[in-house]
Amino acid sequence: MAATIDNSNAVQATKRKHLGIPEAVFVEDVDSFMKQPGNETADAALRKLDEQYQKYKYMELNLSQKKLSPLLSLVRRLKNQIPQITQTLEILRHMQKKKETTEPMETHFLLADNVYCKASVPPTDKVCLWLGANVMLEYDIDEAQALLEKNLTTASRNLETLEEDLDFLRDQFTTTEIMSEGSLASSFLPAFS
Predict the structure, then answer these.
(1) pLDDT tens across 47-71, in order?
(2) Can you point out the beta strands (E) in 70-190?
(3) Are the C-beta atoms of residues 72 and 62 closer than 8 Å to each other?
(4) Could you write out the DSSP letters of every residue in 6-66?
(5) Cα–chain-centroid distance for residue 79?
(6) For the chain, which terminal residue's Cβ has fewer other Cβ atoms within 10 angstroms, N or C?
(7) What's the CA gap between 103 and 37, in Å, rounded?
(8) pTM listed for this prediction
(9) What are the backbone dihedrals phi and psi of residue 105, each rounded to the nearest 5 degrees, phi first?
């Protein structure tokens, strides 16, 4: 995931931005890296890398704390929401099959936390979907199924994007850590002796 110094600007322009997090640069050629502006001395280059490392460390810290991380809470919410949508879609498909019959469907529904009630549901073309914020709307079964399938697709795509962004941040953190503590620092050791 880390870019090398030799990448062209065109390639970098086509890469997807991850939460506005800058991509860490992996230095393959120390000599050309040291010729860049701001890298006049080994101290200056190491200070720059350490500053970048501290920024990634700060971002990681913010992402790891619940109260400071709306991203992680969003990931958790999406991970809970996707199975609920899937389960509701399964129920709708079952109701779709049963609507042609005349016999009622026996089921249990959630009345309160861990409290279920037995119900007999007659065949119907309509369902009510709880949309949240104390809003419930009635839909035809086909409309409800289309809405839930769209919501499932959107939630899955959002979860995948968020997880990619979090992985990207971890990769940038690791790349910067390696560069500041490992290979680049050891390349400067002869300059200090």
Answers:
(1) 887 888 787 777 767 665 644 457 7
(2) 105-112, 115-121, 126-132, 135-140
(3) no
(4) T--HHHHHHSPPBTTBPPPEE-S-HHHHHTSTT-SSHHHHHHHHHHHHHHHHHHHHHHHST
(5) 10
(6) C
(7) 79
(8) 0.62
(9) -95, 125
> What confidence tens digit (pLDDT) does each residue in 75-104 have?
888 899 999 999 999 999 988 888 888 888
The residue type of 7 is: N
Strand partners, 120: 106
Read off the tokens for 66: 């619940």
Which three-class secondary structure state does DSSP give residue 110?
strand
What CA–CA distances, in Å, run from 145 to 3, 50, 94, 141?
Answer: 43, 52, 11, 6
Given the DSSP bridges, would you call strands 105-112 and 115-121 parallel, antiparallel or unpaired? antiparallel
Q: Tokens 């640069």 — which residue? A: 25
